[in-house]
Amino acid sequence: MGADSSAAAAASGSEIYLPDGDLLDLEPYEGMEFESEEASKAFYNSYARRVGFSTRVSSSRRSRRDGAIIQRQFVCAKEGFRNHNEKRTKDREIKRPRMITRVGCKASLSVKMQDSGQWVVSGFVREHNHELVPPDQVHCLRSHRQISGSAKTLIDTLQAAGMGPRRIMSALIKEYGGISKVGFTEVDCRNYMRNNRQRSMEGDIQLLIDYLRQKNSENPNFFYAVQCEDDQFTGNVLWADPKARSDFAYFGDTVTFDTTYRSNRYRLPFAPITGVNHHGQPVLFGCAFIMSETEASFVWLFNTWLTAVSGHHPVSITTDHDVVLRSAVMQVFPETRHRFCKWHIFKKCQEKLSHVFLKHPTFEVDFHKCVNLTESVEEFESCWFSLVDRYELRDHDWLQAIYSDRKQWVPVYLRDTFFAEMSITQRSDSMNSYFDGYINASTNLQHFFKLYEKALESRNEKEVRADYDTMNTSPALKTPSPMEKQASELYTRKLFSRFQEELFETLTFMASKVDDGDEDRITYQVSKFGEDNKPYYVKFNVLKMRAACSCQMFEFSGLLCRHILAVFRVTNVLTLPSHYILRRWTRNARSSVVIEESSADVYTNYLESQTVRYNTLRHEAFRFVDEAMKSSADSYDVALTALKEAAKEVLNAAKNDGRSSAFSNGRNKVASAGDKGTEKFSSGTRVRISGQTLSEVSTILRFPVTSSFTMHQL
Question: What residue spans carry the region label Disordered (predicted)?
Fold first, then answer.
């Protein structure tokens, strides 16, 4: 497309693309004179705006006499080709390659200085080798993106009122009558505001450093650090008080790095590092002020924070959806599972797809269902493509980008990792909530310290109150289950309430064997009564007392799901195995005291030894009965006789050892029958169940000795 046709097309459009003054309809020509080099540059840029391209300075020549510039060449921004510097790229991977913008365009304007001091056009190339930009997009070109003085004044005023770049741009578009008349983009507005913030913070940041230095002098365990590059302060500061460092030792398995200040327009570039305590409350692990948001700055911040918390890497970390943060996390936490905050992505979705939300009121619900309610990777993939096709969004760039990153924010891909959340669909309380109600868009540094300390006091008081309630009150039990009583004595009140909900729901679920696998590993299908089309699958190792559910709730939250508990119910697992009780969720989570042997009798011997022995005997009895019922009536008679003989021997052994089983404190204690759980006889396998008569054996096993195994009830 030639320059003449482009200019004509532009002239028929909006007048704002035409330069003011006597040069309105002129294009450059050889011999044209200007008062200065800057005047010639401004004219060529105005011409480029009318035609539809961006300009830059290409080359210059200086006087040998005094070194002054005597010749300049201005070119189309697409002039030349990208210079691939092999020395810069051969030893390092380019993580975010830039788009190709130079295509060898020859369009240019050359000017040189006359002896009179005037500048004259010595050469002009009109033709371009690429399409030119239409008038409604010309404001996106780099050389034409300029924030005017009046626009700066309005931005300053609105920023002081706590408004963010997106709302400010909306106000500017309304004020000027369209985005093309504003003359710059939201990115320019955001950069201008960030520079404003940095300039205003430079003087105040010393207040923060003085505050941290005082805290460190009062308590040497108060950690803080400032980042410097080439002996220059970058404005990045990190600190962690003694409680934060201590809390990380107990609850540092999952971490959230909260950069909400970037999206919520905080005046302060304040980023807390948080987690979740044993009451499910947000807990603080450290704080940072971030003036420079480069990859190197985040790498410094993470490494320095690791120093503060003794170098222990968390199992998982949650951050905002950001490529720079992702790169920094990969460098510092290579073995840590990195998740993007789903709720930030949902919020961004409302902004990026606002036109879809307005046109299709059902889209938001469908989008949430697709992300939160799909049970498998295959179901999510199918639902996603159905969604983007239904709303004609398959080619939407932002949706394509978040789909590419789906393994880092969609729950179905993350359930195998611990994030300390009680539900796949809940919002983590630690994300963007620790300082809610204290630090907001209007907070400045002078007020920050007092509000920061108030927030810490409030959070500490809430934890103390939760500790008091846990230790001094008892929850109401809903069932006679020994497991419920056991959990009520171990978990904090908040966590017990969540566990109790799962346990109680097992009453509406059915579990049935679908695959015996080998002798010790059985697969169960678990589904809610009347909802057989939504089954979950639990693989249960009877001897090791380990179960894995397809919902992966335990892996994700650290609490057993209703599906595994339903399998425990039908297999007579009466108490929680110790490996399913995470210390970080118990009332003793902060205790550093090693459990003595007497205490171990309660926790280890009771939970592991007694439960495992009981279930081993039960498992062998099931196998014995199943085999007997598969054979003839003679085999049945042999099996029944063997059981009676076994019961007599067990009873005699119990009398000799002075032991018997009893119910004590709501727990069913089954004594050991010795080192051997079974004893071989010519007629088959005799099962030893200490201290029980034959009728008691059938009661414990929850089936009559004359029938095969089906299902058991509590």
Answer: 662-684
Residues 6 or more apart whose CB falls under 8 angstroms from that of 571 comprise 540, 542, 615, 618, 712
SS3 category, 671 = coil
Tell me phi and psi for residue 225, to 5 degrees.
Answer: -155, 150
User: Which residues neighbour 340 within 8 Å (Cβ) at sequence distance 6 or greater?
Assistant: 318, 319, 320, 321, 405, 408, 409
**The token pair that represents 538 in the structure block:** 């639990």
The pLDDT of residue 569 is 94
Cα-to-chain-centroid distance, residue 527:
30
* Alpha-carbon gap, residue 346 to 391, rounded angstroms: 17
Spatial neighbors of 519 by CB under 8 A, at least 6 apart, are: 623
Q: What is the pLDDT of residues 484-535, one digit of tens each?
A: 999 999 999 999 999 999 999 999 999 999 876 666 789 999 999 888 778 9
The span from the CA of 467 to the CA of 226, in Å, is: 35
Token pair of 197 as six digits: 């913030």
Going from the C-alpha of 168 to that of each of 153, 171, 186, 192, the distances in angstroms are 12, 5, 9, 12
Residue 513's H or E segment, with its range, is strand 509-515
Residue 126 pLDDT > 90:
no
Q: What pTM was estimated for this model as a whole?
A: 0.65
Q: Is pLDDT larger for residue 9 or for residue 305?
A: 305
| Residue 283 · residue 274 · CB < 8 Å | yes
CA-CA distance, 50 to 189, in Å (whole number)? 23
**What's the 3-state SS for 313-343?**
CCCEEEECCCHHHHHHHHHHCCCCEEEECHH
Under a CB-based contact definition with an 8 Å cutoff, are residues 264 and 254 in contact? no
Cβ neighbors of 358 (< 8 A, separation 6 or more) are: none
pLDDT in tens, 542-597: 888 999 999 999 999 999 999 999 999 999 999 999 999 999 999 999 875 433 33
Written as one string, the DSSP assignment of 674-706 is -S-SEEEETTEEEEP-TT--HHHHHHHHTS-TT
Q: What contacts 608, CB < 8 A, 6 or more positions away?
A: 545, 577, 578
Query: HSE of 146 in the Cβ direction (CA atoms, 13 Å)?
Result: 9
Mean pLDDT of 118-142: 84
What burial class does residue 51 get, using C-beta atoms within 10 Å of its C-beta: 0-12 exposed, 13-18 middle, 19+ buried? buried
The tokens for 696 are 């008691």
Q: How far apart (Å, rounded) are the C-alpha atoms in residues 123 and 109?
A: 6
